[in-house]
Structure formats: C-alpha cells, structure tokens
Write a structure and sequence with these properties.
By secondary structure, the protein is an all-alpha fold. The protein has one domain. The protein is built from 13 helices and no strands. Helix 2 crosses helix 10. The protein is globular, with a radius of gyration of 19 Å. The two termini are 27 Å apart.
Length: 304
C-alpha cells in the first residue's frame, strides 16, 4: 500500500472513531441535562450556559471573520441558530421535564426521516425510495409505541414526547438551511454563527422562566461538571468531530452512527437515573431504530 493509501486509511479510522465519540457524547448529554434539571436549572438556562461556553471556545479558534457575505446569508445563519439552537434545545430540555430521557433521545432521532420528507415536499427532483417509505412507517409506528408507553405510566406526560418531535422537526429545518450554507462557508464559521444566534434567540425564553438558579447551585460539582461536558464536549468539540467524520465517511455512512445514540442514552438513563423500560417501550425502541436502518439498507441495495 502506498503512503497516500496509508494516510487515507488512517484518516478513515480516525473519522470512525470521531463519529463514535460524537454520538456517545450526544447520547450521554440527555442524562447530563436531566441531572441539571433535577438540580433546579431551567431548560432555557441550561441551554444558554451550554451554548455561551461553546461559543467562547470556538471563537478562540475562529475569530478572523465577523459577518456573512450577504444579509440574506446572515438571516440564514440566524435561522440555524433558532432551529438548531434555541428552539431545538429548549424544546428538548423541556421535554426532559415531562417524559423519560430514553423517549426524548429516541424521538429526536426521527429527525433524518423528517428531513427526507421535507426535502421531498420542497424539492420536486427529490424522490422517496421504497426503503424510505417502508422504514418511515416502521419507525413512526415505534414513535406511537413510545408515546403510548409514556401515557400509560403514572406521572409521565405525553407533552414531553410532543416537544421531542418538535425538536426533531426544528433540527430538520436546520438541515435544509445548512445544505445551502455548506457550499459557501467553513464548518467552524457556520458552527460559531449558529452558537451566537442560538444564544441570542434564546434570551426571550428566559422571560418565561420563573427565576434563575442561585450562584451557589452552579458551584455544585455535579452541576458545573455537567455544564462543562455539555458546552465543551457535547457541543463545541462534538460539532467539529462530526463535521470531520462526514467529510471523510460521507453523510450516509456517518449518519448510521446516529442510531447508536439512543441505545447509549437508554443504557445511561437506566444505569444512572433508574428509569424503567417497559415491554412496549422496548418494542418502540426496536421499531424506530430498525425502521431507520432498514429504510437506508433497502434504498442502498436498490441503488447498487
């Protein structure tokens, strides 16, 4: 094998490792957020602390350029901050107050399916393959099982599952906007602008929060350590690692790692939070993950 071949192989291995680290961080982040909620921090408050830290860290590495090329692009960046930032994470954090961590993780994972549906509706040249249709039906049956599992448990409100789906839709809109921006701007610049507008658009949500936690709460080890994990690792570093993984593996192969995230969340929530898993909840989990995997597998084989 040539030296170029060795370098390419080495880069591919690092890309796989990076993707695995990223989805692991995202899977555990649901548990970290739940811990912060239980310590008295509000959904918007957690999000702002997380993204402010991520923005400061990425600003150190990417600070040469301030504005986008045009006002239209600047509005698109604001949309990214709104959809992939404030709406997505605040809806997700609020969902964690009403339902199980595992449910939120699973339902948010339906975002790729929603993205595909939106692209099909918005772009006439986009066609839905049989695998996508079949996989979507299987996965959304799983969604129904997960929501039913929540409704049948005392003290669990299906509102949390609805908020999780809202987060998934929000992320899908972000994915469509990102498709336009990727061709003109670097990953670091896009991430920095997303973090900035994410914090800016989240500030109005603070008016709906009764009160901020006291400074003494932030000094608790379990609080500041989880905020540090969410801001530095699950946000800033994870975004960079994911971008590099997509670059070397391609979007489809990298996205396959997303299926691991809910499983990691399931293990972490049962192990650290003691959340239960019923039979119907387990069936829903299997249907969501299996439906999305089967859909991509069937479409990929049909394109060979």
């Amino acid at each position: 094998m040539s030296q170029l071949g060795h370098i390419k192989k080495h880069s591919m291995i690092l890309a796989h490792i990076g993707a695995l680290i990223t989805v692991t961080a995202w899977g555990v982040s649901f548990v970290s957020t739940k811990v912060l909620l239980e310590n008295g921090l509000g959904p918007a408050e957690i999000y702002i602390y997380r993204f402010v830290l991520a923005y400061i860290l990425i600003l150190i590495a990417c600070h040469n350029r301030l504005w986008a090329n045009t006002l239209r692009d600047e509005v698109l960046f604001m949309t990214c901050g709104l959809c992939a930032g404030s709406i997505y994470f605040i809806a997700e954090n609020m969902a964690l107050e009403y339902t199980y961590v595992t449910n939120v993780s699973l339902l948010v994972t339906t975002s790729p399916l929603i993205t595909t549906m939106l692209m099909w509706m918005l772009y006439k040249n986009e066609k839905l393959g049989k695998g996508t249709i079949v996989g979507s039906l299987i996965a959304f049956t799983g969604v129904a099982c997960v929501i039913f599992n929540s409704s049948s448990n005392v003290g669990i409100n299906p509102l949390g599952d609805i908020l999780s789906l809202l987060a998934a839709i929000s992320w899908s809109i972000y994915s469509l906007v990102l498709k336009k921006l990727n061709a003109m701007y670097s990953v670091m610049f896009i991430s920095r602008k997303t973090f900035f507008y994410g914090v800016l658009t989240a500030l109005p949500f603070m008016f709906f929060q009764p009160e901020l936690c006291s400074p003494s709460v932030l000094l608790r080890t379990e609080v500041w350590s989880n905020l540090l994990f969410l801001g530095a690792f699950a946000s800033m570093l994870a975004y960079i690692l994911w971008a590099q993984s997509v670059k070397f593996l391609g979007a489809i192969k990298a996205s396959n790692y997303m299926y691991i995230s809910p499983i990691i969340t399931l293990i972490a929530s049962v192990a650290f939070l003691g959340e239960p898993l019923s039979i119907i909840g387990g069936i829903g989990c299997a249907l969501i993950l299996g439906g999305m995997w089967f859909g991509e597998y069937l479409d990929r084989n049909n394109n060979l």
